[in-house]
Design a protein that fits this description.
Helix content: over 70%
Distance between the termini: 41 Å
Low-confidence stretches: 1-25, 337-351
InterPro entries: BPS1_pln (IPR004320)
Radius of gyration: 24 Å
Number of domains: 1
Number of helices: 11
Largest sheet: none
Oligomer: single chain
Number of strands: 0
Keywords: Membrane, Transmembrane, Transmembrane helix
Strand content: under 5%
Pfam families: BPS1
Structural class: mainly alpha
Order of helices and strands: HHHHHHHHHHH
Length: about 350
Amino acid sequence: MSRPQEPHRPFFSFGNPLRMILPKGSHLSPRLISLLKSFEESLAGKLKSLIPGGGEDVISLLWMQQAIVSLSQIHIETKELITALEFPASDWDEKWIDVYLDNSVRLLDICTSISSEITRINQANLFLSCAVHYLEGEEKQIMQACSSLNGWRQHMNSQNPRLERCFEKLNTLTESLNLPKIKNSAKGKVLMQALYGVRMVTIFICSVFAVAFSGSVGNLKELEVLETCLWADAYVDLQGFINREMRNIYSSGAATALKDLEAIHASVEKLHPIIQDGVNPIGADVLPHETSGLAKMADRLSKGLDGLAKEVDGFFQIVLTGRDALLCNLRIGSNNASPSQENNAEQPTLR
């Protein structure tokens, strides 16, 4: 995919994190450079893998599963990087601990909101299963099938308050990119730059999920990225591609950007007129085909949603265990400190 000749680069509305991530006076050893390079190259590779081969793949449940799996792997690799840095949580700056804990709570809330939307769509899918059941028997129950299709429409047109609140949390996470300053530190420099990449990717993918489910295309994120990061080009490519495709989808009048749901919307709109006033001879000829098509799509939707729900739950657990591990390490560090050390110690700083 080719990038625009002059890509739009908005200013840092939340402050320029470059000065905070790259403090003067901290020099990286070859080992630290290698660790950071390996982490950022892996991050770039995952971003590149999420650029679909064509517009028809944006946004599908399969793509969303791949995105959340990649996000889970990125968070796991972040834990591995912290371990490799030999940089215990007890050495983190107090401000950074506060930011991490606050953001992890918001991220857990976002996961819960996305899971609630998956559950809501699965519940709506039950109406389709009922409609298919009423139309597949020898004695078709047309009125009941119409009622089930109307139930699908009403359920899908309802709002999910939890999903709407996702955007507030995503905006707060975006504002937190204006990172607290850190003292000169080689290991701190590596950690801050790695976490910056993790947060940027997390915010973008979660915003794509929220927009795809809600249709609130105006809430798509257009985040500026530091060009010095090895994953910058891959991030700009992915963000630009996904945002353009989603805007094109919604501007065309589609009910949803989610490919799997849009196909079902189209099938329901085709099937409903055939049965709403009774099935005439012409309708009777096409009804088996349309019913069979809807049954297959409803089954694919159910399996896709179940797969996505599993991956979202897995990501939730990764974020939760990371938060618990930090709190546990902090408690252990506090218990190991002697009273004299606690009284004389300065505020913990990154080093």
